[in-house]
Amino acid sequence: SYQQINHSCWYQRRVRGSQLNRLVYQHKSASLRMTLLVVLTTLIALCSAHVYFKEDFSDPNWESRWIVSDWKKDSGESGAWALSAGKYYTDESKERGLKTTQDARFYDISAKHEEFSNRGKDLFIQFSVKHEQNLDCGGGYVKLVPGDGLDDQKDFKGGEKETKYNVMFGPDICGHTKKVHFILHNKGTNHLIKTDVPCETDEFAHIYTAALYSDNTFKIFIDGEEKKSGAVSDNWDILPPKKINDPSQSKPADWVDEKMIDDPEDKKPEGWDDIPAEIVDPEAQKPDDWDDDLDGEWEAPKIPNPEYRGPWHPKKIENPAYQGPWVHPQIDNPEYKDDPELYAFDSFKYLGIDIWQVKSGSIFSHFTLADSWDDVKGDIELVNTIREGEKAKKDEEDKAKRAAEENAKEEADEDDDDTDEDDEDEEDKPDL
Predict the structure, then answer these.
(1) How far apart are CA 245 and CA 250, in angstroms?
(2) pLDDT for the residue numbered 205
(3) What is the Cα–Cα distance from 238 to 230, expressed in whole angstroms?
(4) Residue 307 φ then ψ, to 5°
(5) What is the pLDDT of residues 92-144, one digit of tens each?
């Protein structure tokens, strides 16, 4: 139990160091010492891991944790949320989530959790979303808001005066845009990841995971599969560039960067310019009713000359003086300063959804904020299993639909055959 684990954590702090060594190595049995060491190591791992927020809507008190914003309510543009497992599910109690229910609406809702900082620790951000409406334009992401970002959750909002957030993460679909947003806030500016990471676009549940590691690196997972990773400094334009063009250098005036030049030995053929672009249409004839006194002197229309070759240009040859493109020499940027804590934020206190959707029907669930992969991998396995169940349910529905359509077609064909037989019987009757 959590109580037992907490007590064990306290005990480990009391017995660490030499006391821990004595506890393990006072036993003569090597196998018992190894067992104790494994148990204590496991307890240490449990003590270091922490779940800051978890939500799967499995209890009836979820509405006390999630506060719908008043933003856009006065204008009638805010959408209504509902709790739903969607069209396809195998266990409704484990597959429920927040569902958008009205088309062309803004959706803003947030949940408060214990305030924490990820400085010096890893952070895992995870949730599932199912676009069972085959979303064509709309967001599917979450925002992590600091403690000073909100005084009242009913004021949580997007738009030009959006609520300040530390991280925005999740899929976004609109037209040709089908990517995973990953935005980090730094010194008053929101920075979008430089690489487009494709998101899932089908109608089934998928689980998205973002990891910010204490070594200033990150990873993006979809359904537990790594899609992107690297250093934060290399994938976000947060820091100024390490190198800049040397302001004291400029391209030399005599630098030759023209790769091809006119062939000086190529000469324009004689008579080239004597060929007109247009000629008189040889097939044109003066109309019989043309009156020179009334209509003026008749002129035959002109047509493009098939022999005209256009303006003459000398052929191109490689420039023997070509030096290649000039590369501006670079120097160290005096304004660059490395920041080993680009991943870190002093406060996280709210998880919110702030999206616009043209077509509603998305379902959000399985939210987790934690500092250990072990605390998120279980939901990855769960959602992957849920998705396979959804596909099986849809296959059953599709098969039943096809069977009903085939039966309806067969019945229609039989009715047509009966009608044809009745018509033949009428024709065979003798005239009275």
Answers:
(1) 9
(2) 97
(3) 14
(4) -95, -5
(5) 988 999 999 999 999 999 999 999 999 999 999 999 999 999 999 999 999 99
Cα-based torsion angle of the residue sequence 266, 271, 272, 277 in order, rounded to the nearest 10 degrees: 180
Phi, psi dihedrals of residue 11, rounded to the nearest 5°: -65, -40
Pair type for strands 123-131 and 105-116: unpaired
Best CA proximity match to 381, nearest among 130, 132, 207: 207
Instruction: Return d(Cα 353, Cα 52) in angstroms, integer.
Output: 17
Could you tell me the two tokens for 406? Answer: 């085939």
Query: Tens digits of per-residue pLDDT, 72-86?
Result: 999 999 999 999 999
User: What distance in Å separates the CA atoms of residue 379 and residue 144, rounded to the nearest whole number?
Assistant: 20
Output the pLDDT for position 27.
55
**From CA 171, how far away is CA 311, in angstroms rounded?**
54
CA distance 157 to 197: 26
CA distance 406 to 181: 44
pTM, whole model, 2 decimals?
Answer: 0.75
User: What's the first-to-final CA gap in the chain, in angstroms?
Assistant: 97
Q: For 78, which DSSP code? A: B
Distance CA 207, CA 367 (A): 9
CA dihedral 223, 226, 231, 233 (to 10 degrees): -50
CA 131 from centre of chain: 13
Q: What's the farthest any 2 CA atoms get from each other in the chain?
A: 132
Any idea how long the chain is?
432
User: In Å, what is the CA distance from 191 to each residue of 237, 345, 351, 357?
Assistant: 7, 14, 19, 23
**Under 8 Å between Cβ of 238 and 232:** yes
The segments of the chain whose pLDDT lies below 70 read 1-48, 417-432
Q: Cβ neighbours of residue 247 under 8 Å, at least 6 residues apart? A: none
